[in-house]
Amino acid sequence: MKKLDIEKIKNAWGHSMRTYCLIAVTMLCITLPVQAQGETDLPPGTYTLDKSHASLVFHVSHLGFTNYTMTFDSFDATLALDPAQLEKASLRATINPASLDLPSPPEGFTDTILNDENWLNAKVFPEIIFISRQVEMTGEKTANVHGDLELLGVRKPVILETVFNGGYKGHPMDPNARIGFSATGTFKRSDFGMAYGLPEPGTTMGVGDEIHVVIEAEFTGPPLQEPDLSR
């Protein structure tokens, strides 16, 4: 009886190790082609936001005690890009202000922020728009993206400090080109006419003027081109 139990354990262990090795080899085969690709291998064209791999986060000072954090859950972006000439890229992004997500808001607070004319006034201004005007390369994979932000019907220049995280031209598990960026930026809400609740000069007792933006975004592009086997 004891011998039978030991044999079962040996068989189970052997099966587990074979399964583990198979998974490891499979993952290695998948990732090696990706790691071997350089940014210059990426195809030029139109890249669209992969909304399942993107986030749009804002921070604003609350009484100087914390940086209150909020997100927008509905946004989109289109990027015209030649990876060999990143400085010529152009971006258009839109945000639905009604998709604002606040952490554990008091009853009625979200509705006030969304619809009050002192805040987002989303029923009157149902879209926030960013359009890039210039890409200023600051390093091999970093850039300042200069653009216009339209909020509450007011358009003002904003700079996004951006890092190109890389990408690939596609592989069997993900047959479209894919690229990723991280970006941060700052603007003053008062520049757009949103001045309600600002602290008195020299104090922090209120809602801060500076809005800090943190963006993580992946884009998908042209499909992976099958090799021409006729040559």
Structure description:
This protein has 231 residues and is α+β, with helices and mostly antiparallel strands. It has two domains: 1-36; 41-223, Beta Barrel (Lipocalin), CATH 2.40.128. The protein has two helices and ten strands; from the N terminus they run αβββββαβββββ. Strand 1 and strand 2 (66-72) form a beta hairpin. The radius of gyration is 24 Å and the shape is elongated. Mean pLDDT is 87; it is low at 19-37.
Q: What's the CATH topology label of the largest domain?
A: Lipocalin
Could you tell me the number of beta strands? 10
Count of spatially separate domains: 2
H and E order: HEEEEEHEEEEE
What is the CATH architecture descriptor of the largest domain?
Beta Barrel
Mean pLDDT: 87
Total number of helices: 2
Strand content: 35-45%
Structural class: alpha+beta
Low-confidence blocks of residues:
19-37
- Trace the largest sheet across and list its strands: 1-3-4-6-7-8-9-10
Q: What name goes with the CATH superfamily of the largest domain? A: Lipid/polyisoprenoid-binding, YceI-like
Largest sheet: 8 strands, antiparallel, barrel
Name of the top-level CATH class of the largest domain: Mainly Beta
Distance between the termini: 64 Å
**Which term fits the overall shape?**
elongated
Q: How large, in whole angstroms, is the Cα Rg?
A: 24 Å
> How much helicity do the residues have?
10-25%
